[in-house]
Design a protein that fits this description.
The chain is an alpha+beta fold. The chain has 2 domains: 2-477, Cytosolic phospholipase A2 catalytic domain (3-Layer(aba) Sandwich), CATH 3.40.1090.10; 656-729, no CATH class. 40% of the residues lie in helices and 17% in strands. The strands form 4 sheets. Strands 5-6-8-10-11 form a 5-stranded mixed barrel. The longest helix is centred in the middle third of the chain and has 24 residues, at 413-436. The relative contact order is 0.10.
Length: 730
């Protein structure tokens, strides 16, 4: 059997795509154990020269959001699934159900109290209340697969806020400051039951200094067993993207204490338990390939037998695959299109702009520094053995998660579903391209035929939606339909709607092949964020797809998708889309301004101190007003609507009050005074809008007594929007 090690990098909402890749890979690795299934995957069909060999999952490592997927991969591999389709998987339940509503703190109109959620932009309450208990229930129930009897080693990278000393030489004479840590563990079945346990992983002669310092999680009861809550806490720490999520305090044992402290024995009893704050493991090692390689070799030696000369020098199967799941590696037409885009700056920034640009470029580069170090190690490896193991997945189609700094997929459940299905397709493609057809003279032709076999063979396990999406992606890449495949349409109304949305996203994303560049300079700052890279055009193109508008109205009316319902009903299957998604599709530009206000408001809360309570109250009122105006405009469509219809709407009375109270104020500079009224607006264009202002009252006068003229004025006009002011002509 060919051992496969899965390496999952960080990527924020790219995690939904990576989860789909992992599901596809784990599904095919699991199915490769079946001889009949392997025999059905042969290319060409008549000779079967290239076929699917038996595979096994050897280890998994992750950084940042990839940590979540690495743990889910081990659990999915070890558990015998009750249902095979992707929508029933743990990957789906964790990633597709997690969006803006679950991550962002309570709404802008919440009580003015500084809560634990105000330690970062986003919070983890949904994970703690719903997702971690779900994972824990799967660890404690079900049937363990025979292939998991030896366990799966898991490697996780984390970053310590306060640096530690790392010995450079063997005697510890030279030390370097490091914040780069890693933690190792086994996921193994309990020999007395069908439960799965996390156990301490003890490395042998592996040079741990190659990836920083080792942090072991404490064990309990004189055993090597690790509490599940401690593992979940470590997962939160590793995926705590700076400022987006708060650092997490972790209790751990420094591996250096094992040799320095005589009280610390082989089971780590008597060791000092340290406590420190950790954050995103991707800060210094977002591509834990080195960790994966070392873990694979060390775990193979442990499985081979007790430590000693006979086992400490052996290497795993030379056909091993250390597979790096990389969303940035492109193939086919998408690779050709992206290669045309300029990779240099349009101008040379100066001053603060230079520092900003340096940070924007240097930070992503720094997260890959350890990958560069690993490359140098490969270059020094004269045997070439390690280099042959390294493989990557590739992507042939655009995904939503690559937009907005990799946060875009969090803005809508349909986005995450679509990305998940694209991930399944690319997971299948890797197996076809690198496992089945690696030595074929024409890899692309062989992979196309192998993909057809894989999708057909998996059809009974893919559910009612995935086969349709995979066929569209197959047609886009190979310019052909799957031969001999008749795919049934879903029976359920909600599944039909979900399929229509996914296929509409396939068509909308196809426009990226011709580029999505547009002039974003005239937009506001927040609007430029979604304009650069073409996310706005993607959303608008998607909204123009047939049936999408009616489907969005259905989603908007589905109360199960509301912000207040998610935590109470996380398992609801009848949810088509979340409220954030509906608002985004209605108007991407106004949505961008609204979200920017809410994020800035939450950022202020993070920075708030008890001594600034008065400032906080006034600032909160100001931001609430700004957000209210934006929420008002976000409801606008190409039809007549009241300008303030979406001012704070937490309850029925608030809605009625905001619709009755005059909201439009204009100042008469010449005579002095204020006009109070309403301004129904027809927002037909992005830069202009027709208005019919209605003024029931006019207050005139100077500093002294005021006079109220009870008159009514009704007229028409044209609004011209710019970044800085609103010109009214009527």
């Amino acid at each position: 059997m060919i051992p496969v090690v899965l390496v999952v990098s960080g990527g924020i909402s790219l995690g939904a795509y990576q989860a789909g890749v992992n599901w596809g890979l784990v599904e095919l690795i699991r199915r490769s154990e079946n001889r009949a299934f392997r025999d059905s995957i042969s290319v060409p069909r008549d000779t079967g020269r290239w076929h699917l060999p038996p595979l096994t999952l050897a280890a998994t490592t992750g950084a940042s959001a990839g940590t979540i997927n690495s743990v889910l991969t081990a659990v999915e591999w070890c558990r015998e699934p009750a249902y095979n389709r992707p929508e029933d998987s743990l990957f789906w339940k964790v990633w597709v159900r997690t969006g803006w509503e679950q991550l962002f703190p309570s709404t802008i109109t919440s009580p003015r109290v500084i809560s634990p959620t105000d330690s970062a932009i986003y919070h983890r309450q949904y994970f703690q209340k719903q997702l971690f208990p779900l994972i824990e229930s799967l660890l404690a129930t079900g049937t363990v697969r025979a292939s998991c009897r030896d366990g799966v080693p898991i490697g996780i990278t984390i970053t310590k806020l306060a640096p530690d000393d790392l010995p450079v030489d063997r005697r510890g004479m030279i030390k370097a400051a490091t914040q780069r840590f890693a933690s190792l563990m086994w996921l193994k079945p309990d020999s007395r039951s069908d439960t799965l346990r996390f156990l301490r992983y003890e490395s042998r002669r592996w040079n741990a200094r190659a990836f920083g310092k080792l942090a072991y999680l404490p064990t309990s009861g004189g055993t090597s067993r690790i509490a599940r809550a401690d593992v979940f806490n470590l997962v939160q720490a590793s995926s705590a993207f700076p400022y987006a999520f708060a650092p997490v305090e972790v209790e751990y044992i420094d591996a250096a204490d094992r040799h320095a402290d005589p009280r610390c024995d082989a089971l780590y009893l008597g060791c000092q338990i340290r406590r420190a704050a950790f954050m995103d493991g991707g800060v210094f090692d977002n591509n834990p390939l080195d960790l994966a390689y070392g873990l694979h070799v060390d775990a193979h030696r442990q499985r081979a037998g007790p430590a000693g000369p006979a086992t400490d020098t052996i290497l795993p199967d030379p056909q091993s695959r250390v597979l790096y799941i990389d969303p940035d590696v492109l193939r086919g037409k998408l690779r050709t299109e992206r290669a045309r885009r300029p990779d240099s700056l349009e101008f040379t920034p100066r001053g603060i702009g230079l520092l900003s640009q340096l940070f924007a470029v240097a930070f992503p580069a720094a997260t890959q520094y350890e990958l560069q170090s690993f490359a140098r190690g490969l270059a020094r490896d004269t045997s070439g053995g390690r280099d042959q193991w390294i493989r990557t997945t590739s992507r042939s189609y655009p995904i939503v998660g690559e937009h907005l700094g990799h946060f875009a997929a969090f803005l809508g459940r349909p986005f995450r579903e679509y990305d998940f299905y694209v991930g399944i397709y690319d997971g299948f493609d890797y197996v076809a391209r690198d496992i089945i057809c690696s030595d074929a003279p024409d890899v692309n032709q062989c992979a196309g035929e192998a993909m057809g076999h894989l999708i057909r063979a998996e059809m009974p396990h893919l559910g009612p939606i995935a086969p349709h999406v995979l066929q569209e992606l197959y047609r886009a890449e190979h310019r052909d339909s799957l031969p001999g495949v008749l795919i049934a349409y879903p029976d359920s109304a909600i599944e039909k709607s979900a399929l229509d949305l996914s296929l509409a996203l396939v068509r909308a994303n196809a426009e990226q092949f011709s580029g999505l560049s547009s002039d974003c300079r005239k937009r506001s700052f927040a609007q430029r964020v979604i304009c650069n890279g073409g996310f706005d055009r993607l959303a608008l193109k998607f909204a123009q797809e047939p049936q999408v508008d009616s489907l969005i109205r259905v989603a908007a009316a589905d109360t199960a998708c509301g912000r207040s319902k998610w935590e109470k009903a996380p398992a609801v299957r009848a949810c088509l889309a979340d409220e954030t998604f509906v608002e985004l599709i209605h108007d991407p530009y106004v949505f961008a301004d609204t979200i920017a206000d809410r994020i800035l408001f939450q950022a202020w809360r993070v920075e708030n101190t008890p001594g600034a309570k008065d400032t906080f109250a006034s600032y909160e009122s100001l931001v609430e007003a700004l957000s209210a105006v934006h929420r008002l405009v976000s409801k606008r469509r190409p039809k007549v609507q009241w300008d303030p219809s979406s001012l704070p709407s937490t309850g029925f009375h608030e809605v009625i009050a905001w619709k009755i109270v005059p909201y439009h104020f204009s100042f008469d500079v010449g005579a002095g005074g204020v006009e109070i009224g309403y301004r129904p607006t027809w927002n037909r264009w992005s830069r202009f809008a027709l208005v019919a202002p209605f003024t029931p009252a006019h207050v005139t006068g100077g500093i002294g007594p005021q006079k109220v003229d009870g008159f009514t004025a009704l007229g028409g006009g044209l609004l011209w929007r710019t970044d800085t002011f609103l010109l009214r002509v009527y």
